Amino acid sequence: MRIENQRIQEALPLLGVELRRGVSLAEMTSLGIGGTTDLLLIRRHEAIPELLMLLDAQKVPHKFLGGGSNLLVMDGELPFVALQLVKGEPEIALEGNIATVDAAADLGRTVTYCAKHNLGGMGGLIGVPGTVGGALRMNAGAYGTQIGSYVREVKVYRAAERKIEILRGEQISFEYRHTSFAPDDMMLAVKLELPSKPYPEILQGIRICNEKRRSSQPLGQKSAGCIFKNPPGGSAGRMIDELGLKGFSHGDARVSERHANFFVNTGRASAADMMALIADVRERVQQAYGVTLENEVVVWNG
């Protein structure tokens, strides 16, 4: 979608919003898949309510783009514009055991920065790609760690109320790969309360997690992480593996030979290729195990 409305174009500079024309979202997602649209880069949180009211008034559909690491975007000219936060300064501020982090900050760098200041707890998340805001939205977790365990406060734009709110940790439901945030809520910043721990001890745990990742995940290939959530008491990857589907493909979309719940783009996979692969694998698991796998990857299909 292209922003042609004159009123919007004139208002964007006043709001501190940068318009980039015809951006390929394939270049902004870890899967390397996605069509083109105009991108709005937001530099001031305070401008968001007015910007969204303007877009809604002019009937311009929009979606919030984070780090693009858990996202499958449809091909072609997209029927919406993308909005993305520009990292604030500073990205991370520490006060005792409290880390205040901008939602646009890189998750891995945040974990490392806190670790170097002897704040632990999140070492298992070091290799999880994406932004802190994306991690909050899905309650990202790995190796027994979930970010929601450390959340004390979240600054969020609530689209339903058209305003920015501060939510306390106890006001938010954090479950397995799910939170109570509305789909159109926009994460802006978070306060994390982290346990004190010597940096060498944190580093040792990080190294163990990294070694596990290197041995079990296709780190050098284009992927969106786990495609499916694990069903209660089960493992999506194990079921797919037991069906002999490693290496199974639709076009250039393929089930990873290293981890069966990672689907990779081996060349020029289209969104249609990846969606066909997801649907095919889900159907085979349903027939074999009577389990309907739920997407962990977020799909933007209009």
Kindly describe this structure:
Helix content is 26%, strand content 27%. It is of the alpha+beta class and 302 residues long. The protein has three domains: 80 residues, Uridine Diphospho-n-acetylenolpyruvylglucosamine Reductase, domain 2, CATH 3.30.43; 109 residues, 2-Layer Sandwich (Uridine Diphospho-n-acetylenolpyruvylglucosamine Reductase, domain 3), CATH 3.30.465.10; 81 residues, UDP-N-acetylenolpyruvoylglucosamine reductase, C-terminal domain (Uridine Diphospho-n-acetylenolpyruvylglucosamine Reductase, domain 1), CATH 3.90.78. The strands form six sheets. The chain has a five-stranded antiparallel β-sheet, covered by helices on one side. The radius of gyration is 20 Å and the shape is globular.
Task: Identify the notable features of this structure and list them briefly.
Uridine Diphospho-n-acetylenolpyruvylglucosamine Reductase, domain 1; four-stranded mixed β-sheet; Uridine Diphospho-n-acetylenolpyruvylglucosamine Reductase, domain 2; five-stranded antiparallel β-sheet; 27% strand; 302 residues; globular; Uridine Diphospho-n-acetylenolpyruvylglucosamine Reductase, domain 3; single chain; 7 helices; 19 strands; alpha+beta; 3 domains
Summarize the structure.
The chain has helices at 6-14, 48-57, 107-116, 132-138, 199-216, 236-242, 271-289; strands at 17-24, 36-42, 62-64, 71-73, 81-85, 92-95, 98-102, 141-142, 145-146, 151-158, 163-168, 174-175, 178-179, 186-193, 222-226, 249-250, 253-255, 262-265, 298-300. With 302 residues, it is of the alpha+beta class.
